[in-house]
Amino acid sequence: MADQEVVIEENVRKERLDAYLAKSLENDHSRSQIKLMIKSGEIKVNGHDVAPHYQVKPGDRIQIKWIAQPDDSMRAEEIPIDILYEDEDIIVVNKPVGMVVHPAHGNWHHTLVNALLHHTRHLSELGGDERPGIVHRLDKDTSGVLIVAKNNAAHRDLAKQFKKHTIQRMYYAIVRGVVQHDEGVCEEPVGRAFVNRKKIIIKPSGGKDALTYYKAARRYTDATLVEVYPKTGRTHQIRVHMSFLGHPVLGDTLYGIKSELIGRQALHAAKLGITHPKTKQEMLFESPLPADMQAVLDRLESGGDE
Fold first, then answer.
1. Catalytic residue from among 89, 139, 141, 157
2. How far is 112 from 90, CA to CA, in rounded Å?
3. Beta strand ranges found along 150-254 (DSSP E)
4. How many CA atoms lie within 13 A of 282 on its CB side?
5. CB 259 within 8 A of CB 306
6. Predicted pLDDT of residue 40
7. Euclidean distance between CA atoms 143 and 99, whole angstroms
């Protein structure tokens, strides 16, 4: 599909950009796909990046850079999955570093969803065609526990638990510098940067509420292993909050600087506690620290510089 420009007509009333495009364009892109395109800068208004909730108005010129979705993007792929637990309602996986959770622009194949489609025919439909079963996400280079819904009832229940912040989550992060306090909290609002839509920044005005608790688990010469307990689930929340506190996650080149010790952000989702959507049993799932982060700790323990 060729790139396209849409000019908002005079009779159009104010409406969200993603909603307007989803119903006005004659193509097979869903509203969620269009929203991702806006966030990645493939859709601009009057030559500028905007948010999906931008209110279109008469005279606006919308530029769309179409990146064709492969017909087989939602195919099942025989990719090994480390399954921590599974029953008829949920699957709990230990997501490895480097795996994208679901297909999207630039990452159509080799995702967790592609692997799940090979593993089972039972995944919830509430996430849409491109995100079957996906209740929450982890960044590509963040490892650890992730829960998937196998039916719509389980998806709704888990989504409600995430919304009410009753899910128990603990991450391990290796951060730059020595964290002075044994424990602390960051509650700075966050939101997308206006220029670089892929980056999240602290937004005292207009940002979304974000709450992160942390504890210093072990201190080294110029680094600290911290336990992080996010109470909200904003995009890049832990990485942004730790950077704001002056202790960016080691290896996080978007919010910190490159590290010689590890080639990705040293962040691991170690624990996830839920109420089972059907049995109502309290369940806690754990994932051991991955080899690359353990190697960093061994190096720091031996006196190696971060």
1. 139
2. 15
3. 168-176, 183-186, 190-192, 200-202, 212-219, 223-230
4. 3
5. yes
6. 79
7. 9
Q: How many residues does the chain have?
A: 306
Hey, how many other C-beta atoms are within 10 angstroms of the C-beta on 184?
Answer: 14
Tell me whether residue 141 is one of the annotated catalytic residues.
no
Structure tokens at 158: 């888990």
- Per-residue model confidence (pLDDT) at position 279: 97
C-alpha–C-alpha distance, residues 293 and 287, integer Å? 13
Distance CA 134, CA 150 (A): 9
∠ Cα 147 148 154 (to 5°): 105
The pTM of this model reads 0.77
What gap in Å lies between CA 13 and CA 15, rounded to an integer?
Answer: 6
CATH number for the region 165-280+301-306 comes to 3.30.2350.10
Among all chains, which residue has been given the structure tokens 């691991």? 268
β-strand 15-16 against 55-56: which pairing, if any? antiparallel
Closest to 218 in 3D by CA, of 301, 128, 131:
301
Please state whether 111 falls in left (phi above 0), alpha (psi between -120 and 50) or beta.
beta
> CB–CB of 192/53 below 8 Å?
no
Domain ranges across the chain: 4-64, 74-164, 165-280+301-306
Domain covering 4-64 in this structure, CATH number: 3.10.290.10
DSSP secondary-structure letter at 23? H
Tokens at residue 110, please?
Answer: 């080799």
Tell me the fold of 74-164. Answer: Pseudouridine synthase (3.30.2350)
Give residue 67's pLDDT: 60
Q: Is there a shared CATH topology between the 4-64 domain and the 74-164 domain?
A: no
- Chain centroid offset of residue 98 CA: 13
Q: What is the mean pLDDT of each run of 10 residues along the chain (306 residues)?
A: 78 85 68 80 90 91 74 74 96 95 68 92 84 92 97 96 95 97 97 82 92 98 97 95 98 94 97 98 97 97 74
**82 CB neighbour count, 10 Å cutoff:** 10
